[in-house]
Amino acid sequence: MLVANLQKELELEVWECLDGVTDPELDEPITDMGFVEEVEVIDARKVRVAFRLPTYWCSPNFAFLMAFGIRREVTSLPWVIEAEVVLNDHCFGDRVNEGVNSGRAFNEIFAEYCDGARLDEVVETFLAKAFDRRQETVLLGLQALGHEPAGIVAMTLGALRRVEFSGEEELRQLPRYLDLLMAQGLATEDRDLAFPTWDGDEIAPHELRAHLTKLRSTRINMEFNGALCRGLAKTRYKEVEIGPDGPQLIDFIAGRVRPREEGVAAS
Question: Exposed e or buried b for every residue in 87-110, given b needs 16+ CB within 10 A?
Fold first, then answer.
């Protein structure tokens, strides 16, 4: 029982660390998107993570970024000495799995299997979209609190940290925005402006409305893609949340309920 409890605790720790891996196109954790199929801890030392994507032909760029992100987060746990990442049901699965588990550098694997594409350019594009989406949420939150454009664009990093948000989305996105802001060196000191553009430019008060329109366009595109991914995944894997009354007729017609295995009696 003690060993089983320890294994469950370690598996939970792995699941929690995987929250740090996002779908690069959507800026949403792969755990929230339902991409992670299985987490297995072996001998409290080795971790195996299996994941899948909504379609058989999802972009190899996304697959590689998520696979290496999984490996990075899992191997950051101090007790992990070996990690295996397995991408299932994907046209590039064998190459992704060989690449991520080979021990070779991400840049080398990515260029080899993606027609020489430069990793830094791909990552930069995704990070810029994530930055825009996170920043829009925080800006809209400040507007909802009554802050005027001049005060918002002049707000420092230190002042932003002192703002008390109450909205669920603002509370979720603020630390993510701050992390990316500082990781990119766009604002690192309390006196730095809290809302530069991705290119590091200042926003004038009269430009804030147009800036928010641009950010909104990015968010809508990402939300549409996210809804599409979730729908494709549900359709592909025919999964459904069964309510307290059990599956309904439509669930059987649509093939969303797996047939009972032979020899297993109804509960």
Answer: beebebbebbbebbeeeeebeebb
